[in-house]
Amino acid sequence: MHYDAYRASKLPIGSGTIESACKNVIGGRMKQGGMTWSEAGADGMLQIRSSIASGRHLQDFLLTLEISLLSPEYLFFGLRLIHSPPPDHEHL
User: Fold this and answer.
1) Phi-psi region for residue 55, left (φ > 0), alpha (ψ -120 to 50) or beta?
2) What is the DSSP string of 21-52?
3) pLDDT value for 72
4) Taking a C-beta distance cutoff of 8 angstroms, is the pair 38, 31 a contact?
5) What's the number of CA atoms in the CB half-sphere (13 Å) around residue 42?
6) Are 54 and 91 in contact (CB under 8 A)?
7) Is the separation of the CB atoms in 45 and 37 below 8 Å?
8) Which of 43, 55, 86, 87 is deepest in the core (most CB within 10 A)?
9) Inter-CA distances, 20 with 14, 24, 25, 77, 78, Å
10) Mean pLDDT in consecutive groups of 10 residues from the start of the chain, 92 residues
């Protein structure tokens, strides 16, 4: 990396700025009123939002679909995570 050129251009070279932005953006989205997330659910939501924000959503969706067709366990696991009702609503 060319730190001297970055400093001359007054660009941040440390990771603190990025880490702070991630904390604020992700925290603001994932910690809204009434929201609770499992680790798998939060990971999935962040992957989807990152994919959409980067313009790769169609490519990522097709790759996920291809993986799921090759591995039925992956598809079952993914659908179970997305479509299973919360434990207190199993009687519905």
Assistant:
1) left
2) HHHHHHHHHHT-TT----HHHHHHHHHHHHHH
3) 61
4) no
5) 12
6) no
7) yes
8) 43
9) 11, 6, 9, 33, 31
10) 86 82 82 86 84 87 78 55 48 45
